Amino acid sequence: MTEKRRSAFRLVAGLALVAALTLIVAECDAGIAKWFAGRGVTQNPLEYPLVAVVLGLVMNAVLRGTKSHAFVQQGIRTELFLKVGLILMAAGLNINVIMKQGAGGLIQALILVTCVFFFTWWLATRFGLPPQLKAVMACAISICGVSAAIAAAGAVMAKKKEITYVTALVIVTALPLMILMPWLAHVMGLSQTVAGAWFGGNIDTTAAVVGAGTLYGETAQQVASVVKMAQNALIGVAAFLLATYFVVKVERKPAERPSARVIWDRFPKFILGFVLVSVLASTGVLTGNAVTVLKALSKWAFAAAFLCIGLELSVRELGEMGWKPVVVYASATVFNTALALGAAWVIFGALHL
């Protein structure tokens, strides 16, 4: 067998493994949801990203223990599945819905994204983190977790281990917040509108945002989804600005004149697909059934992506990055939580926007 055929065989074998494991994730997710429903819990607190990552980690250990991880490595396409999932996810990003719900969600999104991004960037600078890691982490915390991290990574040419590191932090943080924040909202006596805006402004993954809103109430779920949707809409803007900043400022050599072509080359092209699908959904070109199908396919793509994160996670590489990124991420998350609560209370509580 020639080297080219061996490579193709390994690619197919890896993709087949990912497909089979993704089906297992779907079955596990359905089984877990049914188990909770039988006990009166309508919203599954163990969202599928966690199931996918755990299964990926288990299989990762098996593959490395049997010395067969390298054989399927070519089929572990984390970034590809994340990009596909992000493009398809845009079917649920309807600009008309955001505008109909009022300006509150958009105003809060602009405040939080701007303030949290620059706070995270400043803190990461103080701790001496690399520029690429700062960009990926700042986007993940301020906008929408993994999706924003992938967009930022493409714009700044971040290392694969930096993406994996931030993604792991997003998952570890978002799922506990999905359970904790509705409880805190009950303790503080927040209205469903204010609570939903708080959830949408703080929790870093869309699935966990919807989960938290569902646990608190129907209105909270709707508001949380709109606020998170407004933040998701800023992904493309952030990617373009980061690509421009890194070309003009961070990576510019002395006497070098940056060109628009270089910025275009750095811009993550999948963002254009994200924008296109969103426009088609917002203008009604995509029917309700088409949107439903695309959102379902997005969930499958994200499940495969989270599975691949577990499959390729290297404890050794993550350990080499040290404790500083964890401190920055945790501190920025606390800042985001407090600011999102204040903004939600003022915008949706006091001003009733």
Would you count the extended β strands for me?
A: 0
Count of helical segments?
A: 18
* Mean pLDDT across every amino acid position: 84
Overall helicity: over 70%
Shape assignment: globular
Q: What share of the residues does DSSP label as strand, in percent?
A: under 5%
Major beta-sheet overview? none
Measured distance between first and last alpha carbons: 66 Å
Low-confidence stretches: none
Radius of gyration: 20 Å
Order of helices and strands: HHHHHHHHHHHHHHHHHH
- The secondary-structure class comes to mainly alpha
Put the structure in a nutshell.
The protein has 353 residues and is an all-alpha fold. It has helices at residues 3-37, 48-65, 69-72, 78-89, 95-100, 104-126, 131-144, 146-156, 160-188, 192-202, 206-216, 218-232, 235-250, 260-266, 270-282, 288-312, 315-320, 324-350. The chain has one domain.
Question: How would you characterize the overall build of this protein?
Answer:
The chain is an all-alpha fold and 353 residues long. It has one domain (78-350). The chain is 80% helix and 0% strand. It is built from 18 helices and no strands. The chain has helices spanning 3-37, 48-65, 69-72, 78-89, 95-100, 104-126, 131-144, 146-156, 160-188, 192-202, 206-216, 218-232, 235-250, 260-266, 270-282, 288-312, 315-320, 324-350. Helix 10 runs antiparallel to helix 11 (206-216). The longest helix is centred in the N-terminal third of the chain and has 35 residues, at 3-37. It is globular, with a radius of gyration of 20 Å.
